[in-house]
Design brief:
This protein has about 280 residues and is mainly α. The protein contains 10 helices and no strands. Helix 1 packs antiparallel against helix 3 (about 50-75) and helix 6 (about 120-140) packs antiparallel against helix 7.
Length: about 280
Amino acid sequence: MTPGTRRRVRAVRLGPRSVAALVLVSAVGVAGFGWPFLAPPDSQVAAHAADAPWLFAGLLVLLVTVVAATISESGLGPKAVAMLGVLAATGAALRPLGAGTAGLEPMFFLMVLSGRVLGPGFGFVLGSVTMFASALLTGGVGPWMPFQMLAMGWFTMGAGLLPFPDRLRGRTEVALLAGYGFLAAFAYGTVMNLAGWPFMGALASGVAFDPDAALPANLARFLAYCLATSLGWDLGRAVVTVVLTLVLGPAVLRALRRATRRAAFETPVTFEEPAGVSRPT
């Protein structure tokens, strides 16, 4: 460690079991998002195209719960739980401010900065819990919610996986986070399009998923669907994330790092007995 740098304090240290759970839920999530492209037209999954999103949504609820519990068991202590609650509540409160209008969703920049400071394990749990809480707050509960929880978990975890967490500081770090936020905002919108696209059915025959079509045809349909429905929202989300990261990022990063140092997550919580009080024998 070079002079003037500090080792990042992790709210959650991922063990082998937590990593395995993350890999498992991510693999199932990839299948849940991408099954329209992974399943051949003559498969049973394609034959039940109307039911598959519901089945994957139910499965993802269970898996996201399992991976969050596994990560929590590996080291989410009381201090980290308190930090999780504060950040999740703040993120959930930020989401309705833009109500998704033209992609004005300020919660995304907070997820990027929190994942960067607190690490990928904490980031995944924070992203999932924040999206769950915000869905309850905004009434956005539906079959898409498990997909949103997983996608936001990936989004926040990715910020924790960015390079040089202990050495990179200042404008360079802020620029890195802004660039990540810009690209990840589009990635989030794209994977969420995958979650909603199979529901279109006959509502938009020219861009809807066709279970009888070949892969190239469905790829073209999906691209047209993204361009027609979400490009403006994704661009707005990306720009808002970049602007807020550049403007507020340095101050928020300092506040988060100061809070994690004072919390001393890696120091166990102990309770001292009052002087003069003896334990019963």
